[in-house]
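SEQUENCE-TO-STRUCTURE ENTRY
===========================
Question of interest: how does this chain fold, as expressed in backbone structure tokens?
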Amino acid sequence: MPNVLSGLETPAAVIDVARMQRNIQRMQQRMEGFGVRLRPHVKTSKCLQVIDAQISAGASGVTVSTLKEAEHCFAAGITDILYAVAMAPGKLPQALALKRMGCKLSIITDSIAGARAIVAFAGGQGEVLDVWIEVDSDGHRSGIKYDDNLLLDVAQTLHDGGMQLVGVMTHAGSSYELNDAEALQRLAEQERYQCISAAERIRAAGLTCPEVSIGSTPTALSAADLEGVTEVRAGVYVFFDLVMHNVGVCQTDELALSVLTTVIGHQLEKGWVITDSGWMAMSRDRGTQRQQQDFAYGQVCHEDGQWIDGALLRSANQEHGIVTLQTPADSDLTVLFPIGSHLRILPNHACATGAQFPHYHALDANGETHIWSRLHGW
């Protein structure tokens, strides 16, 4: 079979489509086993072909991180979209325009000020917007604590203002900091319990709150119980990455995204191989630096994807990557890795690395590559 990667300009983002499809099936089947809806977070791939594969496997609706993603998804025929970033008042006209075109767009808030801005804008336009309240289930980022009275105040503000309170949602992002199966399962239960408890408090106050949405790849793959949850939003599972490998929710043969790079030089006295994959290709993300195994800027593999033990993209400048290897001192790096040869680098964070490229080269099971463009903009 001809090596189609050899003809690509580098650096290039490469998707192993077979691995991606297995990852999609793994998450979809797990959620179906729990009887919950999977609404994938598409910020990882930002790619319509990947999103289509997720929906074809059974996913229902999508989660987006930008309204521009929402616009692209809607133009592609996806109507059920959750914009999962606290709504900035200045972006409400953009959201309303989507709704008026027929998009079933829902937005989120986690503050009185945010709720009031939504009510004031929508009321002034004679519109009802679908709104979720974000719950902070682990102190990781934004949201309202499930037992905080602010939760009820925000819910009441939305209700009194005529908005449709869809439900509560949360993201246990601190799961990225764990690497123990029992700890992950405990956090998954904490995420579930606190989010459904928030919904129950709102319902007890006489307000409707039909949906409970949770989501992170580690907790989705670690949960023992999802009773009371109506949907799960996970994203990075579609590609996985070295951070997820360190967390313990994927194996090396499930990492579906890599960066194809060319050897452009050597520093023999230092034991370095120089590549054209600097931080402009890999991103600045050093997420594994805080984990039990630090992969520097990425794990180095042969062009065919075979892992090279001890080979790391140790440091990176804008367009230069420096690979270090655990090879015998008398090894001739110019023979092992000649100038012009290719390597593949597995990234720390698939979302960040993917964002460096305008498109992917999707490598299918037949050894053919296809150009899959990425979505851009806010």
About this structure: Residues 4-10+250-373 form a domain with the Lyase, Ornithine Decarboxylase; Chain A, domain 1 fold (CATH 2.40.37.20). The mean pLDDT is 97.
